[in-house]
Fold this protein.
Amino acid sequence: MTKVFDVVVIGAGPAGYVAAIRAAQLGKTVACIDDWKNHDGSLSYGGTCLNAGCIPSKALLESSELVHRAKHEFAAHGIGTGSITVDLAKMQERKAAIVEQLTGGIASLLKANKITALQGRGRLLKDRKVEFTPHDGKAQMLSGKDVILASGSTPMELKQAPFDGKNTVDSWGALEFDAVPKRLGVIGGGVIGLELGSVWQRLGAEVVVLEAMDDFLFMIDRQIAKDTQRQFKRQGLDIRLGAKVSGAKTGKSGIKLQYADSKGEQEVEVDKVVVCVGRQPNSADLFDEACGVKTDARGFVEVDNECRTGVANVWAIGDLVRGPMLAHKGSEEGVMVADLIAGEFSEVNYNTIPSVIYTAPEIAWVGKTEEEVKKSGRAYKVGTFSFAANGRAKAMEMATGLVKIIAAKNDDEILGVHIAGPLAGELVAEAVLAMEFSASAEDLQRTIHGHPTLSEALHEAALAVDNRAIHAINK
Ligand code: FAD
Ligand code: NAI
C-alpha cells in the first residue's frame, strides 16, 4: 500500500530536515527519509553537518585552539600553566557528546513537528512515488504531492591516493583519529584542508598541505589570502602550492606522497594522509531516469533559482545542487522551498551567503572580492582596518588580521566585506545584514558600535572607505 504525504523529503541534513520542519510548520503532512549510518553502525539525523562536518570539526578546532593559546598566548597574560597535556580520548569524547546532543535534538524536533521520520534509503520514481528501503527491511512505497531531494554530498576520492579507511582517509576519518599522527599529509589546501590541518598541527602533528593550485585559497580576496597565508606559515603549517600529487606509496616507514611542482618531481613522507579535494553530490541512484530529473556533467541536480528541478512538484536543495556547499545555504533553500510549496512568497538571496573558515585567524567574507569587482568593471573604493589597532583584539591577545570593505564609487553600495581575524565568522553577520538591506558604506559609518568591541574594526573599515577612519592614518 502506498502511504500518501503532502511532502516527502529525501535526506535529513541541514537542507532536508529544515525543509521538513518548515513544511510541517505550514501544516503539511511530511515524511523525511534519511540513510545516515555512523562508523559504529548507529543511525542518526543531521547528515554530514552534524555527524561528520560542521559540528565535530568545530568542536576539535575549539579544543585545539585552546591548546595553542595555552601554549603560546597565556604567558603574555602572565599566566603560567606548566606543561600542557592533551588527553585526545577525552577531547574526542567531548566532540562525540556534542554531536550526540545535537543529532538527538534533530530527532526530537522531527517528532515534535509530527514528521514521519524514516531511516533507510529513499529513491524517487515516476509521478512523485518514493521507494523507501529501511536499513534492514523490505521496500515500502510512499508518495508525495511534493518531493524534495536533499541527499547532500560525499568526499571525492583521488585515484592517486585512494582511501583505505586507516592511513589514507577522508575528512570524516580525520575527525576520528585516536592518536595524533606524527606526520600528517593533507591533499587539498581548501577549507577542510586548512581546518583539519590546523587541528592536528596544534595538537602536535607536523602537517604538510599539498595544494594543486598556484594561488593560496584562490576563491577568497587576494589581500586576505596573502595576510592569512603568512600567519599559517608562522604557525608552522607547511603549505606547498602548485603541488600536483601523482602517487602515494606505502612503505615500512610511512606513506611517500609523490607530487610535481614548479621545481620538478618531489616526495614527502608522512604517517597519515587526509584527502580533501572537494565533495561530489549524492545523485547516483537517487531517482529513476523515467522521473525526468536532470543532472549536470558533475552530477549536480539541475534546478532554477527557486530550486525547481523542472519536473512539476519535484525540488532539490543543499549540496545536491549548484552553489556553495554550505549548511546554511542548504537550510535557506529548505525554508524557501517549503514556503513556496505552501504558496507563500520566499526567496534566497544568493549574493549574501556568508562563508567562514574556522582557522586562527578566522576568515569570513560575504559578497564580491576586489578581483571580482575589478573584473565587473564597476568603479569601487576600498576601506581596510587592521585588528592591530583594535582595543578589544589587543585585550584578547588576538590583534592580527584585518577588515576590508569594498563599496561602489557611484552610489556607495557595499559590494563585499572580507575579514581575517578574531571571531570573523561572528563579525561577518553584521555585513550580511547590511548587504541584505542594500546598505551603503555610509550606513555602516553612521551605525554606532560599542566600545571596545571587535565590531569597531568593521566600523573603522567602513569609515576608511571614504578616508575618514579615526584610529588609522587615511591614505
Ligand atoms: P548532508 O548534510 O550531506 O545530508 C544529506 C543526508 O541525506 C545525509 O544524512 C545522507 O546520509 C542522506 N542521504 C543521501 N542519499 C540518501 C538517500 N538516497 N536516501 C536517504 N537518505 C539519503 N558547512 C558550513 O556551512 N559550515 C561549516 O563549518 C562546515 N564545516 C564542514 C566540515 C567538514 C569536515 C565537512 C565535510 C563539511 C562541512 N560543511 C560546513 C559543509 C556542510 O556539512 C554541508 O554543506 C551540509 O551538510 C550540506 O547539507 P545537505 O543537507 O545538503 O547534505
Ligand atoms: P575545497 O573545494 O574547499 O578545496 C579543495 C582543494 O583541493 C582546492 O583548493 C583544490 O584546488 C584542491 N585540489 C583539488 N584536486 C587536488 C589534487 N589532485 N591535489 C591537490 N589539491 C587538489 O573542498 P574541501 O576542502 O574538500 O571541502 C569541501 C566543501 O565542504 C567546501 O567547498 C565547503 O563548501 C565545505 N566546507 C565548509 C566549511 C566551512 O564552511 N567552514 C568547512 C569544511 C568544508
Remarks:
- The CA atoms of residues 226 and 447 lie 30 Å apart.
